């Protein structure tokens, strides 16, 4: 925090005094947006007051991707911002990294707002890959540093072959929920309990968790549990909403136990298939996600937490 204030004050001082040295420092960082993360990239460029590089991208008739940097980034540090979901965005990121390398960029910092494939973080059965590691190792080939938001598990960071750090958007989500009069936060499974606890502290309310068993990719089962949620405004917080199965079951449970309003909030809103309809028909009163995956529910911005971790972990801005 102190460092961030110092850096910001230094920047303002330099801008106002038109200090040549500082200008040369700050123009060294360029932001390059991937097609999946334009909002986050734009926000980072605004937060740091650094340029967003013009790029050209298109798909060939066979759907292969074409990417081109329209500006010279030679010797400049670049911040490549791209979520690795769905699959095609992984290839886009690899091509962006290669373009930066070919252009002789300085340091290549890769910001992955949502790290796709993170849920296969180990072998669940023989013959399987460790998918998260496979993606991380390829991304590491042309990266000096990686930043991601709310990784499914913290140990995923160890799969990168370069320093990798995470930040959490829970604070930003909780600040949003504070404006909604939430008086109870629920984690839909034990793995999400720390997130719920942190949010409940910020909102200043109670929290609890459910016990979930996953049957298959689309079906989950919840253990019956008495929750103190009668007539309360409840927010269920998770890292990911994918098919919406976990949240839909939790909403039904809460509504059965007399909750007044039930909001669902996540960092990464995948909303695959009929997830939205599932949530609404379960009785959901509001759906909230960040913009790590841009969608109609991206009401919370992820850039602030990314900028904080960048300021903490890099010297590039100093
Ligand atoms: C699982 O451990 C995750 O934290 C989420 O609970 C899960 O990915 C949500 O998936 P779905 O929306 O398909 O139930």
Overview of the structural elements:
The protein has 318 residues and is α/β, with parallel strands linked by helices. The chain has 2 domains: 2-168 and 302-313, Rossmann fold, CATH 3.40.50.2020; 170-300, Rossmann fold (3-Layer(aba) Sandwich), CATH 3.40.50.2020. The chain has helices spanning 2-17, 20-26, 38-48, 88-102, 131-140, 170-178, 193-203, 245-256, 275-281, 303-313, and strands at residues 29-33, 55-59, 65-69, 77-81, 108-112, 145-149, 164-167, 184-187, 206-209, 212-214, 220-222, 233-241, 261-269, 286-290, 298-300. The strands form 4 sheets. The protein has a 6-stranded parallel β-sheet with strand order 9-8-12-13-14-15, sandwiched between helices. It has a 5-stranded parallel β-sheet with strand order 1-4-5-6-7, with helices on both faces. Strand 5 (108-112), helix 5 (131-140) and strand 6 form a beta-alpha-beta unit. The structure holds ribose-5-phosphate. The site of ribose-5-phosphate (R5P) has 14 residues, from strand 12 and helix 8.
